[in-house]
Amino acid sequence: MREISFMKAINEAADEEMKRDPGVFILGEDVGKAWGGAYGDFVGLFDKYGAERVRETPISETAILGSAIGAAATGMRPIAYLYFVDFLGVCGDELINQLQMRYMFGGKTKLPLTITAYSGAGVSSAHQHSKSLIGLWMAIPGLKVVTPSTPYDAKGLLKSAIREDNPVLFLEHKVLLRLTGEVPDEEYTIPLGKADIKREGSDVTVVATAFMVNRALAAADKLQQKGISIEVVDPRTLVPLDKQTIIDSVKKTGRLVIMSEEPITGSAAGEISAIVAEEAFDSLDAPIKRVCAPDTPIPYSSVLEKFWMPDEEDLIKAVTEIA
Amino acid sequence: MPIAKEKLIDMYRTMVRIRTFEKVALKGFEAGDIGVIHLYIGEEASATGACANLRDDDYITSTHRGHGHLIAKGGKTNRMMAELYGKKTGYNKGKGGSMHIADVDIGILGANGIVGAGIPIAAGAALSAKMRGTDQVVVCFFGDGAANTSRFHEGINLASIWKLPVVYIVENNQYAESTPISYAANIANLADRAAAYGIPGVTVDGNDVLAVYEAVGKAVARARKGEGPTLVESKTYRHRGHFEGDQQTYKTKNEVDGWVKKDPIPRFRKKLIGMGVLTEKKADEIDQAMLKELDDAVKFTQESPFPDPEETLEDVYA
Q1: Hey, CA dihedral for A56, A61, A66, A72, is it positive or negative?
Q2: Nearest beta carbon to residue A25 from set B119, B131, B315
Q3: Does the A3-182 domain belong in CATH 3.40.50.970?
């Protein structure tokens, strides 16, 4: 099978959906002819679809997300490119007060709207350009949250996100953008809410999000050498969350570690811990472990950033403690 | 072009309908049956004159002080009242209340509890109208307070660079909550800010329904022709507080008396009678008909069921 980059997968998904549905359009900063998105996600689409459907905006995050909401409520299907997910802070009102339009209106409208944004640390971008904050987005009612870890998942999930009649936040981890992987030529989609077992194992379940999936897979080989078999579960979407796949895995292994790149308090790891503790407590043979970042802003220096980010060693330590 | 007699009478009826709705809602609030409300009394000419230019398929975005806008755009008073009472028959099935009433079927993209939030949403609806190849227009109502939020700049700038079919109406009712606009802005006319976006800006007497009708009419025609947005400042005054319960210690008696003399409803009534469009009797009949309509709205509300508690869990996702 051919191999393409994560970013190329994003590009193909957007291209195919724009071709399929004339209501789909992109708006955001630097999405136009010059750059095609800051990391080049949409390269070539401006030439193909023109300035009407690949709409470069001023640096106006509030207007980007606010106008995307207005367009989505009136028959269009926008992809709002928010650049770094940190910038959602600039349009916090749209995120926490306006995206819930359907509910507030008593179910009278749909908001088919995808927000794409770069997330994650690991490239020395410091606090304002490195966050993931997955748990924070999970806590916003009405918003679906997608965190692909491979080019294959990125393409299939983005296509589904664009076809969703609800707001979806689609996170592209910066470290993954140039990662390559197998992606078929044929069209496919991946439903939101379906976890993927990235590696089967028998001793400990490791639920990992986004780039942490890749780190968990790397740790799995090292743990195997120590005689510990981990099962790596990638939820792929945190909202909706495929609880059943996680619980089924815990029932098999009896042990759970959750790895997510965000401050530990209020993280996705905390929520998954609570779900498993409530719904599969009897299956647990050891305490649940969370491998997250400390409750600090994200530092710049590569030495500090490395300390901040959860890594293979952190995971191996946590797994070894309960295995 | 002279305005048809029926249209003038419709405008009077709409203004009275709004005022009557607000007075009835106030009773419900005072009885403890309705949650937080922000009344539009004194500003009726603004919404009425603006919306008299719109078609059913045009859009509006509204504000926390939205009852007048919604009624002027064709919102039904019985379903609005039912929403205020949290009933299942309300526009939002009891999920929104006063600050979120919406009916997308007649282009009402919602009241909004966040000051200024409608400004970029209106730009998006206008972008959608343009991209879908329609000649629909969006009217975005907001207050003088919203004119000082960041989205006033971001939204109007975006609408101006893309020449979107939207009319921005800043209803300058003199106060953002308790803060006078004379304190919060360093210019006399907020419409002057239009110059910063290279679009027309016009200030009108917001208590003169025909002045609003004419100014917004020009702006709507410009938008429909694809020539872009306009900023219309409608200078008016809210007779009530920011919210019901506001003691309004920031207003002086002289100021209030002066504005009450300029109350848009008796003023328009007098004008229509002077023009021979209405008689005292005919105007009284309209007033009575609106009282009757609101009595019926209250009855409809009282007879309507509350939603089932489990409905809390519905409508999060499509």
Answers
A1: positive
A2: B131
A3: yes
When the candidates are 3.30.70.920, 3.40.50.920, 3.40.50.261, 3.40.50.2000, the CATH number that belongs to A196-322 is 3.40.50.920
Q: CA-CA distance, A64 to A79, in Å (whole number)?
A: 10
Calculate the alpha carbon distances from A205 to A220, A249, A288, B100 in Å. Answer: 11, 6, 10, 44
The residue whose two tokens read 């195919």 is: A16
Number of other residues whose CB lies within 10 A of the CB of residue B312:
12
Domain containing residue B161:
5-300
Report the residue of chain B nearest A165, measured CA to CA.
B318
Q: Residue A279 and residue A121: Cα distance in Å, rounded?
A: 32
In a domain, B160, yes or no: yes
Cβ atoms of A168 and A146 within 8 Å: the answer is yes
**CA distances to A201, A212, B75 from A242, in Å:** 18, 18, 42
Peptide bond into A240 cis (omega under 30): yes
Residue B117 and residue A75: Cβ atoms within 8 Å?
no
d(CA A74, CA A91): 20
Is some CB atom of chain B closer than 8 A to the CB atom of A82?
no
pLDDT value at B1 more than 80: no
Ordered mean pLDDT values, 10 residues apiece, chain A (323 residues)? 97 98 98 95 97 98 98 98 97 98 96 98 96 98 98 98 98 97 98 98 98 98 97 98 98 98 98 98 98 98 97 98 96
- Tokens standing for residue A13: 């998904």
Residue A127 falls in the annotated catalytic set: no
Among candidates A53, A66, A112 on the partner chain, residue whose Cβ is nearest the Cβ of B124: A66
Cβ-Cβ contacts under 8 Å between A and B: the total is: 146
First to last CA, chain A: 37
Total domains present in chain B: 1
Place of tokens 């917004």: B216
Q: Give the distance from residue B191's alpha carbon to the nearest chain A alpha carbon, in angstroms.
A: 20
Instruction: Give me the pLDDT at residue A44, please.
Output: 97
Residue B310 lies in a domain: no
pLDDT digits (tens, 9 = 90+) for B260-315: 999 999 999 999 999 999 999 999 999 999 999 999 999 999 999 999 999 999 99
In a domain, B295, yes or no: yes
Residue B311 within a domain: no
* B-interface mutation test, from A57, A77, A102, A104, most B Cβ less than 10 A away: A104
Which CATH number belongs to the domain containing residue B220 in this structure?
3.40.50.970
Alpha-carbon dihedral angle through residues B27, B30, B33, B39, given to the nearest 10 degrees: 70
Which ranges constitute the DSSP H helices of chain B?
5-30, 44-51, 67-72, 77-84, 118-131, 150-161, 181-184, 209-224, 253-261, 264-275, 280-303
B79 pLDDT higher than 90: yes
Q: Which of A68, A74, A103 sits opposite B315 (nearest CB)?
A: A103
**pTM exceeds 0.90:** yes
Residues of chain A with CATH 3.40.50.920: 196-322
For residue B255, count other CB atoms closer than 10 A to its CB.
13
Residue located via tokens 């025909």: B210
Q: What is the ipTM of this complex?
A: 0.96
